[in-house]
Amino acid sequence: MTAILAPTDRERALAVLRFQPTDRLPVVHFGFWSETLLRWADQGHLPHDLARAWGDGNDADAEIGRRLGFDGNWYSCTHMDTGLRPGFPREILRELPDGSRHVRNSDGVVVLESPEAGSIPAEISHLLTDRASWTTHYRDRLAWHPDRVDQARVRRSAGDWPAFAAGGETFLRDQPRDFLLGLHCGSLIGTIRNIIGVEGLSYLASDDPELLEEIITVNADLAYRCVERALAGGARFDFGHFWEDICYKSGPLVSPRLFARVVAPHYARITALLARHGIDIVSVDCDGKIDALLPHWLDAGVNTMFPIEVGTWRASLAPWRERFGQRVRGVGGMNKTVFAHDRAAIDAEVERLRPLIALGGFIPCPDHRIAPDAEWDLVRHYTDRLRTLA
Predict the structure, then answer these.
(1) What would the pLDDT profile of 197-214 be if each residue is shown by its tens digit?
(2) What is the pLDDT of residue 312?
(3) Which of 188, 231, 305, 311 is such that its CA lies 20 to 30 A from the CA of 245?
């Protein structure tokens, strides 16, 4: 069969996810730790100003990706303000002898910040604990306002474009583009888990399920209204995207029964809205072992899993495809840790991916941000190898 050539990276990626033939596999990534880019700059692979300018989907991202041999960043999305508005002011509550601090963050959560930690800080306490704290501190911060959408920006193509207002509608509606652009549709329960904590979420589901359902509904209604306004002016997007991070290495951090009963219907409402505007690819970013939530996402119209963390549980598209067929697609599933090893490890990982690629509807992508131990030349070797695969 003669391949149908997809003339742009954007069309190539969409063809794969729609199980259509194309000339070659798209080569995508999920961004970088800032420490990674600065280390590469110190080694002479990048100018320091380019490394410091990086952000998902911006011009620096496109240039760095080009130098590494990537076609694009899957996390190139236009973000609306679907979070707390305003966020809580950052407040240092306590200084500890070892240099760490108790800090109230923008979610109202007191966290332990350590000068040596570069990852997620430990949680100390949470402001949202009951109905009184919800109504006093949080409910109004999730109120809808058109500015949540109208002030969104698209930082690409040598400009800082308004995403939806005035000329921004022209850019997203009429201007041809060769890069993928998603509409970030927010988070329906992951941000709530951030605010209340895993333990607090579990207790609230038992102690006051009506309050938890109200919190989820208010949050989801805000996301729906943001998506609705974003699409109303004719702005064009290639895919819808959600963020959750509600799983860990052994399974969900939330009850699958609660998710199916309370959260999934809100997903279905938003994905139906996306479908009415011609958006048939909808992805969700959820770390961890997602298997128990996967059928509920699929039933609610989310069809593309990302980033499919390989982790200790060896997540893979293969068993999902065997169970759900072509209803499930994927972006991710590439073990990024091999970037710290050698070319043989890269070659072995590409060979491991080969049968998954043959299933169709799957785009390999490093299964999270490329870490500081990654070697520039090994990332280049990976993209060169992947580009040769049909």
Answers:
(1) 999 999 999 999 999 999
(2) 83
(3) 231
In one-letter notation, the amino acid at residue 257 is R
* Tokens encoding 83: 């979070």
Task: Tell me which residue has tokens 């549980």.
Answer: 313
Q: At 335, give phi and psi (nearest 5°).
A: -75, 100
Position 179 scores a pLDDT of 81
Dihedrals phi, psi of 150, to nearest 5 degrees? -65, -25
State the burial class of residue 106 (Cβ atoms within 10 Å of its Cβ: 0-12, 13-18, 19+).
middle
Instruction: Choose among 333, 259, 337, 335: nearest CA to 298.
Output: 259
Q: Where on the phi/psi map is residue 311: left (φ > 0), alpha (ψ -120 to 50), or beta?
A: left
* Average pLDDT in the chain: 92
Rounded CA gap, 182 and 288, in Å?
22
pTM of the prediction? Answer: 0.93
SS3 123: strand
- Give the position of tokens 């999270």: 368
Query: CA-to-CA distance for 380 and 369, rounded, in angstroms?
Result: 16
User: Could you count the other beta carbons within 10 Å of the beta carbon of residue 174?
Assistant: 10
At 174 the pLDDT is: 66
Task: Identify any residues that bridge with 287 across adjacent strands, giving them in sequence order.
Answer: none
Distances in Å between the alpha carbon of 252 and those of 249, 289, 290? Answer: 9, 7, 6
Phi, psi of 262 (to 5 degrees): -105, -40
